[in-house]
Amino acid sequence: MKKLLMLIVISIFGIVTAGAQCPPAGDITFDSQFSIDAFILLYPNCTKVDDNVYKIC
């Protein structure tokens, strides 16, 4: 249920920010596979990240 709710929120946010190619400047932190999947949904055209990318276990 939590994942479904998060997917709905991300989908709505993705529609609002559909023009964005990459996230705003700053480090990116992933804390789960779901957050990686969400990133791909939110920024489908992003091919390069200029800042640091972190994974929290």
Q: Give the helix proportion (percent range).
A: 40-55%
Order of helices and strands: HEHE
Strand content: 5-15%
Q: What's the shape?
A: globular
Commentary on this structure:
Helix 1 packs parallel to helix 2. A two-stranded parallel sheet has the order 1-2. The mean pLDDT is 83. The longest helix has 15 residues, at 2-16. It has helices spanning 2-16, 33-42; strands at 28-30, 53-55. It contains 2 helices and 2 strands. It is globular. Helix content is 44%, strand content 11%. The chain has one domain. The protein is mainly α and 57 residues long.
Keywords:
57 residues, single chain, 2 helices, mainly alpha, globular
Write a brief structural summary.
By secondary structure, this protein is mostly helical.
Task: Please specify the SSE layout and strand pairing.
Elements: H1 2-16, E1 28-30, H2 33-42, E2 53-55
Parallel strand pairs: 1-2
Helix pairs in contact: 1-2
